[in-house]
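batch job 7 of whatever, protein = Phosphoesterase
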Amino acid sequence: MKIFFMSDIHGSLHYLKKALEAFKQENAGYMVILGDHLYHGARNPLPLEYSPKEVAELLNGFAGRIISVRGNCDSEVDEMVLDFPIMAPYSTVLYNGRRLFLTHGHIYNEDRLPSLSAGDVLIYGHTHVPKAEKKGNIFIINPGTITLPKENSPNSFGVLEENVFKIKDFKGRVFKQIALS
């Protein structure tokens, strides 16, 4: 099964539409959102086509296929307008015999790892900087952000299929990848 990953929407209708088009083109079974759904945050500029209400409406159309976690810009009031839960600080998914630990990154991250076993995967957002590497015996992945990239990285998302995690831009170009083996 193919899983689509995105993070840090920050209320941008423009970039969410691009991400949902990529999700459809990838023909993924599920979508993982790594937090910061609706609000842009006090440290971020207003993103292109900032429209939290319309972002919520679009995401609700995919509610049955979304696995999501809370970002530092998410709140209980945001969850009231979404048809899927977003307030858990992390989620875990079993994938081909390994645990995917899904989180936003403001609590757990590569510098503050949760309890993981050899071969497990930490997947987080928050930094707006894509990453795909192995640190010791743990895989560390950040798909970047669809909306507000940093450090000269492109707007990006991730796709996990057949034990390979690929980070892509909206033109479909893979610019980082890692085999989970």
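notes: Residues 13-26 form the longest helix (14 residues).
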